[in-house]
Write a structure and sequence with these properties.
The structure holds 2 protein chains of 2 kinds.
Chain A (H helix, E strand, L loop, with lengths): L3 E3 L6 E3 L4 E3 L2 E3 L2 H12 L5 H5 L20 H7 L1 E2 L5 E8 L4 H12 L4 E6 L5 E6 L6 H10 L3 E4 L4 H40 L3 H22 L1 H12 L5 H22 L6 H20 L4 H10 L4 E6 L2 E6 L8 E4 L9 E5 L2 E4 L1 H4 L5 E3 L4 E2 L4 E2 L4 E5 L7 H14 L7 H28 L2 H14 L3 H20 L2 E3 L3 H7 L3 E5 H5 L5 E7 L5 H8 L5 H10 L10 E6 L3 E6 L2 E6 L1 H6 L11 E7 L2 E9 L6 H10 L3 E5 L4 H11 L3 E3 L4 H13 L4 E5 L5 H6 L2 E5 L4 H6 L2 E3 L5 H36 L5 H20 L8
Parallel strand pairs in A: 20-27, 20-29, 27-28, 29-30, 30-31
Antiparallel strand pairs in A: 1-2, 3-4, 5-6, 6-8, 6-9, 7-8, 10-11, 10-12, 12-18, 13-16, 13-18, 14-15, 14-17, 19-31, 21-26, 22-23, 23-24, 24-25, 25-26
Helix pairs in contact in A: 6-7, 6-10, 7-9, 7-10, 8-9, 9-10, 9-15, 10-16, 11-13, 14-15, 14-27, 15-27, 16-27, 16-28, 17-27, 19-20, 22-27, 27-28
Chain B lengths: L2 H28 L5 H6 L6 H21 L4
The chains are: A alpha+beta, B mainly alpha.
Chain lengths: 797, 72
């Protein structure tokens, strides 16, 4: 009975008797069956060969009417007309699991009449579709995507995203040129050095120098353009930065080397020009690469609010755009719908999932006169309510705009190396100038004074300084990612090292986020199948957990009669003409069983035929490694605070269990953000770890937001660090790695200073010979890279 | 060995190399590496059929474009 079989379409496994048999194929639902036949008819069934062993999500069958996509308002917002007169839209396609899914979507759309281009990005599931609007409409395109088992919704491909992409591409191009030139330069340098030690004819040396000149020119003027541009703006705003030093250093070295080449006197340093620019450019690129765009997050966020609602007007139901709903309009919500506008219930009652506001998964029962809040989801409630606010001022819209604000004004802590480079650059430039003046007075030989002062700048190669941070963070990032910690931006490692306060969310972060049976008491032997059959019909998380707890293979599904879900109490049914009841103490009292409830845990009682049979106590337990990890984090000198939307009793219990002294309960999303703002105003650096939609504001407001890997999509989008393996010890690891990385950065900077302290005086005294210059160039960079590798010690994997 | 041989070898190799770099830059600009996952996975699905599809799409676009440019 329990032999499982995979659905032909989605490959998920179910037991054979619940599957739909269709010829030799089995399907888990009508949706899968429909898609399978559609693909066969269209000749797209090679999709299944490409799919391999990958599993899909079964297609959803609840879609809002696609014709909304053809409304002029919608076209105006999302659809643009390109140069050739075709319509263009950016979509996010949901349900893409593998490359075969991308293939299928592209293929199916390409085969449609009127569609002229489709391009789906595998990594972020974003698609660009171009079509002729006279032949096919957007609604048909979206219906096609839905028909093959996916869903699509449009997003505003904002300028920001386009800009970030362009910047990245530009860096690729510049690096391609720089790396090519550097590699060729190296082969030439082998000949140069061999010649330096064993003798070389001036003729050949001259040729090699000219070759180097040719190679270094595009590097300086094309790859090095960001530095030249940076210097230009630096001069304009009268600031000196790393760009200034790199650009002046490289440029002066280039001029000097040309002079050497033309006069055939001494050694040229074209290799230094390319190396400096290549190294620093790669370092800079590492930082650009990991920058995330705010636009992405808001796209996902907006998705969480419906765009239309059903409004009762003159006793008829009209679908209205959320922005057209006025205060005191009567709005209709049916089960499964998400509330878009705040209001007060005037008819009906039912359970609402308020996890997006409180983080608690337990549904809240609401009836006439109570407020419902946007962003919550009706689980089984069909209610009419009166809007008390318009859409723009409803809770969720507020949160979205606060979020937008917070993400655009994220505190940026300037990196140590950047702060230092300012002083470093001005010092070096000043020293070079002093050397020039000094030598001019001493030897009154302009040429000699000029050459020596340039050698000061060349020798004070900013390579080590510029590489100090990127190389250390790169090593830190790679260790972190091996342990399932994903830093979205390299600079965050450094920021995180200076943390003062760690703010933790309770449900889903410290705890598993789902109640677990911690205590079971059976008053009498009974057939577990009775209980199992009953609670299978409840969607309540407590019932789910009890079902999971008692589940084993011997349980059978019994036929129950007159099933009844009693809101905020439990579930009841008839079997064998006796009543089955499962729920809380209130339900037991209602059926005449006297129970004194005293436990601080949630309780679930089960009665059959008016006799109490079992009691289960449930509690959302902290993760197993939470206590130890929190102690370790405290030992790093970080204050740990817990903020939760839950009530005092369970907050206190969890705080005691994991050893947190400071906690706040019944916090709203805005309250959490305000708490973090308060810490900021006290000059603290705050790291926030959370998992739910209720945490996003706090995550966005903190210096570093950390999301648990199984948290909501938005929390992951908003945060800067994601703990992929979802454990608490990796939270501790992330602190440890960031501290270690920062120590390395400081050591690297110190090293490059020691280097300069030795070589600059030599250069100023005019003792620099080419060999020392070349050695110092490579050795200082090598030292920095080598030192950074030490972060790996202590991390075996 | 006379030095013009060195000069020629250097020149030719740098020239050939730069052709490859220019080709790479062209590909980057065209967006061929924009989606690294797809770039790697596309190899698996690169059959004759897919090539035909791409060609058909071009043809379809061309036809539609001509229609657009008809005198009004």
């Amino acid at each position: 009975m329990s032999d499982k079989i995979a659905c032909t379409h989605c490959h998920l496994e179910f037991s054979k008797d619940v599957m739909i048999k269709d010829g030799e194929h089995y399907f888990c639902c009508n949706g899968c069956q429909g898609v399978f036949h559609l693909l066969s008819d269209e000749g797209l069934d090679s999709f299944y060969d490409k799919l391999g062993d990958n599993k899909l999500a079964p297609p959803s069958e609840q879609f809002e009417d696609a014709s909304n996509f053809d409304s002029p308002a919608f076209y105006e917002r999302f659809v643009s007309i390109n140069k050739e007169g075709f319509a263009e839209v950016s979509l996010i396609i949901e349900g893409i699991h593998c490359a075969a899914c991308v293939w299928l979507n592209e293929k199916a759309l390409t085969n449609m009449d009127g569609v002229v281009a489709t391009n789906i990005n595998y990594t972020n599931n974003k698609a660009k579709i171009v079509w002729d609007d006279d032949i096919v409409k957007l609604s048909q395109i979206i219906e096609m995507i839905r028909a093959i088992g996916y869903d699509a919704y449009p997003y505003d491909a904002s300028l920001q995203e386009v800009k970030a992409d362009k910047e990245r591409k530009e860096y690729y191009l510049r690096i391609a040129v720089a790396v090519f030139a550097t590699m060729n330069m190296m082969t030439i340098m082998v000949a140069q050095y061999a010649g330096y030690f064993t003798g070389i004819t001036p003729e050949i040396k001259h040729i090699l120098n000219i070759g180097e000149w040719v190679l270094s020119t595009p590097v300086l003027f094309y790859s090095g353009w960001p530095f030249i541009r940076g210097t230009y703006y630096g001069i304009k705003t009268k600031t000196v930065n790393m760009d200034t030093l790199v650009a002046t250093g490289a440029f002066l070295t280039y001029i000097y080397s040309i002079y050497i080449t033309l006069t055939r006197s001494g050694e040229a340093y074209f290799d230094s020009v390319t190396m400096i620019i290549t190294f620093v450019l790669v370092g800079k690129f590492l930082e650009v690469l990991s920058k995330k765009s705010v636009a992405d997050t808001l796209d996902v966020m907006n998705r969480h609010l419906p765009t239309d609602v059903n409004v009762v007007e003159d006793e008829k139901i009209v679908t209205k755009n959320v922005n057209d709903v006025k205060i005191s309009d009567i709005v209709l919500i049916t089960s499964g719908e998400r509330v878009a506008i705040d209001g007060e219930i005037i008819e009906g009652s039912g359970n609402f999932d308020e996890s997006s506001l409180t983080g608690e998964s337990e549904p809240v029962y609401k009836t006439i006169g109570e407020n419902i809040v946007s962003g919550t989801v009706s689980i089984d409630a069909d209610v009419k309510y009166k809007a008390t606010k318009d859409f723009a001022h409803s809770t969720m819209s507020n949160i979205v705009s606060l979020l937008e604000n917070a993400m655009n004004n994220k505190p940026r802590i300037q990196q140590l190396a950047n702060r230092i480079s300012e002083y470093f650059s001005s010092t070096i430039l000043a020293l070079a100038f002093l050397t020039f003046v000094g030598w001019l007075l001493y030897s009154s030989n302009f040429e000699q004074a000029f050459m020596i002062s340039i050698s000061v700048i060349v020798i004070a190669c900013p390579c080590a300084l510029a590489l100090a941070t990127p190389v250390a963070t790169l090593v830190g990032l790679s260790i972190a990612s091996k342990r399932g910690i994903l830093f979205k931006e390299a600079a965050q490692l450094e920021t995180m090292a200076g943390t003062d306060v760690l703010v933790l969310d309770k449900t889903g972060t410290i705890t598993e986020g789902k109640p677990e049976v911690v205590n079971a008491k059976e008053y009498k032997e009974f057939d577990k199948s009775l209980l199992y059959s009953l609670i299978l019909h409840s969607k309540h998380p407590i019932a789910r957990s009890v079902a999971e707890y008692i589940f084993d293979d011997t349980l059978a599904c019994l036929e129950l009669e007159s099933l009844q879900n009693i809101p905020s109490q439990g579930i009841s049914a008839m079997y064998d003409s006796k009543m089955l009841a499962g729920g809380n103490a209130k339900l037991m009292q209602a059926i005449g069983i006297d129970i004194q409830s005293s436990s601080e845990n949630s309780e679930f009682y089960f009665a059959y035929g008016g006799e109490l049979l079992a009691k289960y106590e449930l509690f959302d337990m902290p993760r197993k490694d939470a206590k130890e990890a929190i102690e370790n984090i405290k030992r790093l000198g970080i204050t740990v605070v817990m903020l939760t939307g839950d009530h005092e009793r369970s907050a206190k219990k969890v705080a005691e269990l994991v050893g947190i002294k400071n906690f706040e309960y019944e916090m709203t999303p805005e309250g959490k953000a305000a708490y973090i703002e308060k810490l900021h105003s006290e000059g603290k650096k705050v790291v926030m770890a959370g998992d739910g939609i209720n945490d996003i504001l706090a995550l966005a407001n903190s210096d570093i937001g950390i999301a648990m890997g199984n948290g909501s999509d938005i929390a992951i989008e908003v945060s800067d660090v994601v703990l992929l393996n979802d454990t608490f010890s990796s939270l501790y690891d992330s602190f440890k790695i960031s501290k270690k990385t920062f120590t390395m950065i400081k050591e690297n900077l110190a090293l490059s200073f020691v280097y300069n302290a030795i070589t600059i005086p030599l250069a100023m005294a005019g003792f620099i010979i080419p060999l020392i210059a070349a050695l110092s160039m490579s050795a200082s960079s090598l030292l920095v890279v080598g030192n950074s590798m030490r972060i790996k010690f202590g991390y075996k994997d | 060995m006379s030095s013009w041989v060195i000069a020629m070898m250097l020149g030719v190799s740098v020239f050939l190399g730069s052709i490859a770099v220019v080709a790479l830059m062209w590909a980057i600009k065209k967006g061929q590496f924009d989606d690294e996952e797809k770039f790697l996975n596309a190899v698996k699905f690169d059959t004759e059929e897919d090539l035909n599809d791409a060609a058909n799409l071009e043809r379809k676009k061309e036809k539609l474009r001509k229609k657009e440019y008809r005198p009004e």
